[in-house]
User: Fold this.
Amino acid sequence: MSTAQDIMNKKLITLDLTVSVAEVAKIMDKNNVSCIALTKNKKLQGIVTEKDLLSKVIVPNKKPLELTAKEIMTSPITVVSPLTSVNDIAQKMLDRKIRRVVVVDNEQPLGIITVTDFVKHIHAILSDSEDHKTKLYENLFEDYDDWIN
Assistant:
C-alpha cells in the first residue's frame, strides 16, 4: 500500500511566519506553487494558500506590504506522517473538505500532498494497470500461437 512519502511533493516552500504577504505572493508566483508553509524555528506553524490571499487580502482590499504572513495564514493545518497510508490521507481530505495536507516528521515539514498529487498517483496506477493488461494479452496471444502451431 502506498504511503504519504510515496506520493508527496518534496517541493514544499517554507518561510518564516513574519515575512510580508507581498513576499509570500512573489515567492508563490515565482515558484508556481499554490501555497507556502510557514515556520518558526523550523517548526510548522501554518500555511498561506491562494485562497487565503484572495479572501483575506484582495477582497477586503488590504495592503500586502503591511500584513505579515502570520496574519492571514491558515492554522492549525492538517498534517500526516510520512507513513500514513494514501487511503487514510484521501479520507481525511474528503472528511475535512481540504485540498492539501503537509507531511511532517517531528514537527518539521518534509513535503506536501495536494489534490494534484492524487491525480498523478491515480494516473500512475491506471497507466501501470494498462501496461499490465497489454502484457497479459500479449502473453496470451503468444501462448495461443504456440498452441495452434
Remarks:
- Residues 115-148 form the longest helix (34 residues).
